Fold each of these.
Amino acid sequence: MKFYGTTLSSPLMLGTAQYPSPEILASAVKAAQAGVITVSLRRESAGQKAGQAFWSLIRELEVPVLPNTAGCHTVKEAVTTAHMAREVFETDWVKLEVIGEADTLQPDVFGLVEAARILTSEGFKVFPYTTEDLVVAEKLLAAGCEVLMPWGAPIGSGKGLNNVFGLRALRAHFPDVPLVVDAGIGVPSHAAQAMELGYDAVLINTAVAKAGDPVAMARAFSLAVEAGALAYQADPMAERDMAAPSTPLLGKPVLA
Amino acid sequence: MNILVNDEAREVSASTLAALVDELGLKGARIATAVDGDFVPASRRSHLAIAEGMKIEIVAPMQGG
């Protein structure tokens, strides 16, 4: 699957926040074999210049970057942040977040659609962080988005895929749209499950960064994503409610 | 001139945004700027005159999810 015409080297998108150190971040990105890394923008202090050091680090990783508009609660903030990100990171890709609610960090889907419409008209390639709502998905596509990124569960919660039915319905409704589960994935089995549903990628941050051993966890996610994608291609068996013996009964000796 | 840079009160001598970036030691740095909530591209910084009370934001790459 292509994302705005680009084939990624891996369906694992990895966030760069919350790692114990820049070295561990770099090692985790390599261990994950991440196809994309997400980045952000924050105020630069004249004295510290932390952003310049981070910029050098991500340049050395040579992985495509996807800047986000994390923390933006209004359309104006998100659009302005996207403009600043395009200049700083030299990419027209943007992971568009318009947050509507503080406890769940649930997207404000109304603001999201409006911001997406503005940004796509300005040439941005928008990756909208959305819910699994089909109607919102339709409106995002009509607004010019060519990728959808529904949440699995609230950001940083690690709860996995809260609404498997909804995610499956989204996949079925939009067979040709690249779909990414973004947010809420806690362990590699959640990522494998998303790929088994036919999702094209997963975006993970906290689950790797906050693991006891982020580098080992990055590798675990890489394997899980590969396994899940392969399983989807292999066409999983149909689930059923009753048992069915896998060992043939024919030829069984009568011993009773 | 008294302005706010990243919400911090500063007295600066720069007359343009480009000069301000220079004065703050960020010339050539990987940054983006906004003035009073509006994005100002790097190419327009030298045309933007600093005025009393302006709210200027200067951002740079940072870790994100």
Amino acid sequence: MSEIADKVKKIVVEHLGVEESKVTPEASFIDDLGADSLDTVELVMAFEEAFSVEIPEDAAEKIATVKDAIDYIEKQKAA
Amino acid sequence: MFRLDGKTALVTGASGGIGAAIARTLHAQGARVVLSGTREAVLAAVAGEIAPDGERVHVCPADLSDPAAADALVSAAEVAAGAPLDILVNNAGLTRDGLAIRMKDEDWNRVMEVDLAAPFRLCRAVLKGMLRRRAGRIVSIASIVGVTGNAGQANYAAAKAGMIGMSKSLAQEAGSRGVTVNVVAPGFIQTAMTDVLSDTQREKLLGGIPLGRMGKPEDIAASVAYLVSDEAGWITGTTLNVNGGMAMP
């Protein structure tokens, strides 16, 4: 797993207080990990801070799963 | 009841009569208080009067008409107090009165900026930490005119009504994290400004107040102390009208 994926996973575990094993790439924050809308906003803000990226509102709306987050951040970092 | 031991509170506009009374009351209930305002010397004097030994009292001056000041103030307050903020009291405000047909954009904008935008920015800044910690209390000091309107105060009334709508929205956003957001809307409070009223003016004013007297800064401070206490944990999005019965919305 990439360094970014590791860090995303760690943030999700920490923020949502879920078991690490549940944080699979396909896991949906809301449907599988018990997040509410406020959690997802807080997660996006935590990603922004941790990776020094800006995630605009329309992009943030599309981040539903762990993989979505990893992909988006990897793309931003590669650009 | 209503003890605030171990809690840290930021009070803006703490150099004014109401702000100083709020800070004094929260401190007396056991809170650590950070006083903010534009007049550093007055803040220092209020701090000295609250706790001559400087125990649990800090001063962080800020000019909230600067958009960057709100974030900076929250950081500075947490550094000064050595603890995250549990309580925010948005009390700072100003007036630029005048009948609407003669009101300048500048006077409208300045009141909106200091009385509505700055409290919003302070709420936003403290909410991040409060949501994470699953606890927090925000109380904003509006005004009876935000509920009733007042000739000559279109800007001030709009800003204070805006504060009420904002607080109700924030209360809904933050409720699931145990953070409450409420408003206290004071009526006529005895201050240097109302001391100069003529006897006739005073009589007329008092005639509209069922409880027959003007409010004291301590009347406002006591309601704030209640709303920020653990005991008020099931009250959010409400506006407490503290006005002697002058308006009963």
